[in-house]
Amino acid sequence: MTPEEFRVCAHALVDWIADHRARIPDLPVQATTKPGEVAAGLAPHAPETPEPFGAVLADLERVVVPGITQTQHPAFFGWFPSNASLASVLGDFASSGLGALGITWQSAPALTEVEEVVTEWLRELTGLSPAWKGAIHDTASTACLVALLAARERATDFGQTRGGLQAEPAPLVVYTSPHAHSSVAKAALLAGFGRDNLRLVDVDPTTYAMRPDALAAAMAADVAAGRRPAAVVAAVGTTGTTAVDPVGALVEVAAAHRAWVHVDAAMAGSALLLPECRHLVDGVEGADSLSWNPHKWMGTILDCSLLYVRDVQHLVRVMSTDPAYLRSAVDGEVTQYRDWGIPLGRRFRALKLWFHLRLDGVEAIRARLRRDLANAAWLADQVTAEPGWRVLAPVTVQTVCLRHEPAGTVSDDGTVLDGEALDVHTLAWAEAVNTSGLAFVTPSVLDGRWLVRVSIGATATERSDVAALWDLLRAEAARHGG
Amino acid sequence: MTPEEFRVCAHALVDWIADHRARIPDLPVQATTKPGEVAAGLAPHAPETPEPFGAVLADLERVVVPGITQTQHPAFFGWFPSNASLASVLGDFASSGLGALGITWQSAPALTEVEEVVTEWLRELTGLSPAWKGAIHDTASTACLVALLAARERATDFGQTRGGLQAEPAPLVVYTSPHAHSSVAKAALLAGFGRDNLRLVDVDPTTYAMRPDALAAAMAADVAAGRRPAAVVAAVGTTGTTAVDPVGALVEVAAAHRAWVHVDAAMAGSALLLPECRHLVDGVEGADSLSWNPHKWMGTILDCSLLYVRDVQHLVRVMSTDPAYLRSAVDGEVTQYRDWGIPLGRRFRALKLWFHLRLDGVEAIRARLRRDLANAAWLADQVTAEPGWRVLAPVTVQTVCLRHEPAGTVSDDGTVLDGEALDVHTLAWAEAVNTSGLAFVTPSVLDGRWLVRVSIGATATERSDVAALWDLLRAEAARHGG
Q: In this structure, which of A395, A441, B383, B412 has its CB flanked by the most CB atoms within 10 Å?
């Protein structure tokens, strides 16, 4: 395809995208396709000869759009916000259009240095001290794995340069909350620690935050048994309830064992843009690494996860590669991001952060986050005031965990009387909400019982959308035997 | 930014990109900025209020473009081709515009199913049997790590569910070629095997391909010493010389020890689109995993690396996560790509493959690859016929390793007489080529001495560009004391 052919197709595609974005409020929020339906709508073999662009665009409309849960919809309250701001989309376009290759500073100095600048902008905007240096990764899952690998190599004094983890004399142990994201356990297992050496530390029964005394006890027990505490992953904003582990207190406990502390703030990290929310990570300057995802609430299109570390030299030593064909005269003077993470090559992802922050401005982003916090507080107030409804966890940021509890299922003091009936009811009305296409929420399990998470923060979501959701929840709960 | 504001900006950006792509032949190939120069050209803090799109676009032109080595340039012969075909760029635009979230089948059935379909298209196009299933990863580095984690868990019978690698009684060993990509050693270290348990197996001194007898001997020695062979990484197209390890013979040796065989065909995988090149992976049906990068020679824009495995159930067991908030009624019926790799969330990368194959057609892609093979053979012939020049390794695909050897530095039979003078000369003329801006090549080390890799295969590169390069190489070598 020549640049002139591209120009024609791309203009058509831009119009399609702008039209699509404008009509999203009129689309069903939840994807409407059945398993296999999208695949059945596609050709079984790749075409030998070019197809016209119109045919591809038509398939995008016919097959792809119905097969997407519209996370940009004003009534999307599922999982966590996954905002793809149009300002950041322009940055993504620029990245694709340039077609730059990020494998070494020399291959694209701008790719490296824009990333250095924007991660520095965001360090400052989130109130971290200049001791931190950041880089862009695809997701917080990967960032957590990188952090645990760095932790492992610190604990073994670079055992990877000798016999690896399999040569270690005493088992290394990783600690996290049972409410931490599933990617934490996955990262610990992939890093080789083994499930036997992963401790899920007790949480407070009301806040669901990790208890520092329980962490201290778990570490002491491991040490007494000849094991070595290597890492603590603190969740700031758990996936279930956005519970906030007390970073400062955990850092103090970990320090006694020289254990690495990684703060997983994948969702709540966006809140650090607001000075009034920085208490969420009180004590973070004592931690070793912190990750959060601008691709969630802040709204820089996926994939854009930031991992900040305090000891870059350590990270680079764990991750470095130095083959001859990547050497250049400027080595030592420049940043080589290939040595900050797992993949050698990287896209020019910094552009989407750069475009997003410049075209929207930080003030507007902050105002939007504050709007969402107020909306969550408003919804929690409505739920609390409504007979038969309950908020089940502290609303620390913008997610409200709620449940409709029909008569006889739960006592006034919150004791579950008929858990099975309650679960059936919760899943039934949540499913009805989602299949209505009018809104999308995520059921989840807390203390062994289903509840519904309402995660507020899609860019387009205004108070009126939250109010409409609240009407819909009550209507569906009532229709399903409330 | 509203859809209408986006429409205006995106049209302007499309025109900028089309114009940029059209003028690339007139730009210097190598980035012209000095370390720190790009960063110095950017604002030190994020703006509080929105900037006009024109200001951002102007910075893209002023700061970013000079800071990019133009891998789309017809005279780009560096590293490996990193083609960003405009057809695939359109697919990337569609992905960004849709803003879909790939964390579970339900979040975007189309994202999952288009990926299933296009990986199946490419399986068929590359001649793999239906026993293989593929998924898209960011890079071959990540794919190799995933493969080695799968290998580790097969060798330990899922030790991660118990004490992890640190509980294993006898060390597991990984085997690869000293010419394998640096990411293989990195992956082995990150997976916890340790450098002591990474064997760099002898290669043939002429082809630089791994010797099966040397692999067998290394494995036997490890077994005799109480260690256990766990994985072999075979390189099909090494980075230095595109040497091709003999997959079939290595598979046979590995089978005796039930060692996992991963085939890293990051670069040469594109050649499998040509039936006449499938001999490069003879015996691959006996391997366990294969990765290659459409984002290299084939030209689907970075990042797009494919990892095919034969035992998906095993991979899923190694990588799976199953938290409550990701459960849905269709679990078991659908593919959950989050359980096929490291990150939980994924972009809609399948679209760029889908657009690329449909808009360009396979026939045209094959014709381009054949053009490049012929150009490489032509250049190798010119070099071989030219006194004072030598081709240093077999041209297995599209990369020519060459050297100018001034009188007195190398004897007629290839013995290096004055290696230091030779290295100084090679690096000097290669640097002169690159700083000229007229072409870009990559110096690399083979048998302890520098040479120059000419990796042919940028989409725009025609025979005339290769001929012009050959003139330039001779002129610069002569100017630098040849």
A: A441
Give Dmax over CA atoms of chain B in angstroms. Answer: 75
What share of chain B in percent tops pLDDT 70? 98
- A239-251 burial by CB neighbour count: b if 16+ within 10 A, else e? bbbbbbbbbbbbb
CB-CB neighbors (< 8 A) of B14 in chain A:
7, 10-11, 14, 93, 97
Note the ipTM here.
Answer: 0.96
Q: Which two tokens stand for residue A162?
A: 């000798």
Report the DSSP beta bridge partners of residue A308: A134, A290
At B473, list the tokens.
């190489």
Q: With beta carbons less than 8 A apart as the criterion, state whether A74 and B151 touch.
A: no
CA distances from B457 to B77, B376, B400, B401 (A): 7, 9, 11, 14
How many CA atoms lie less than 13 Å away from A302 in the CB half-sphere? Answer: 26
Return the closest-CA partner of residue B196 out of B227, B220, B159: B227
Residue corresponding to tokens 């990863």: B137
Return mean pLDDT, chain A: 96
> Based on the number of CB atoms within 10 Å of its own CB, is B278 exposed (0-12), middle (13-18) or buried (19 or more)?
middle
Which residues neighbour A472 within 8 Å (Cβ) at sequence distance 6 or greater?
A433, A436, A438, A439
- Residue B44 identity: P
For residue B172, the surrounding DSSP H or E stretch is strand B172-176
* DSSP classification of residue A76: B
Condensed to tens digits (0 to 9), the pLDDT of residues A337-391 reads 999 999 999 999 999 999 999 999 999 999 999 999 999 999 999 999 999 999 9
Instruction: Look at residue B482 in the predicted model and tell me its pLDDT.
Output: 60
Tokens describing residue A361: 């401005």
| Cα–Cα distance, B480 to B205 (Å, whole number) | 30
- Cα–Cα–Cα angle for A205, A209, A213, rounded to 5 degrees: 85
Q: B172-176 and B228-235: which strand pairing?
A: parallel
Any residues with CB less than 8 A from the CB of A279 and at least 6 apart, and which? none
How high is the pLDDT of residue A324? 61
The 10s digit of each residue's pLDDT in B373-402 is 999 999 999 999 999 999 999 999 999 999
Could you say which DSSP state residue B403 is in? E
Decide: B376 and B429 in contact? Cβ < 8 Å: no
- CA distances, B119 to each of A258, A303, A321, A401, B94 (Å): 45, 21, 30, 39, 19
Q: Which of B26, B190, B274, B453 to mutate to test the interface with A (most CBs of A within 10 A)?
A: B190
Q: How far is A207 from chain B (nearest CA, A)?
A: 19
Nearest to B234 by CA among B259, B271, B270, B197: B259
Quick one: average pLDDT of A269-282? 98
- Structure tokens given for B57: 């676009």
Asked if residues B424 and B411 have their Cβ atoms less than 8 Å apart, the reply is no
pLDDT in tens, B142-156: 999 999 999 999 999
- In contact, B259 and B147? CB cutoff 8 Å: no
Identify the helix (H) or strand (E) that includes residue A57: helix A53-59
Q: Which residues of A touch B106 (CB under 8 A)?
A: 30-31, 69
Rg (CA), chain A: 24
Two tokens, residue A33: 């396709």
Cα–Cα–Cα angle for A300, A304, A306, rounded to 5 degrees: 115
Query: Which of B9-23, B36-50, B322-336, B447-461 is predicted with the least confidence, judged by mean pLDDT?
Result: B322-336
What pLDDT is recorded for position B170? 87
- φ, ψ dihedrals at A402, nearest 5°: -135, 165
CB A438 within 8 A of CB A29: yes
Contact B417, B408 (CB under 8 A): yes
- Cβ B45–A124 below 8 Å, yes or no? yes
Q: What pairing do the DSSP bridges indicate for beta strands A133-137 and A198-200?
A: unpaired
* Among chain A residues, CA nearest to B65: A110
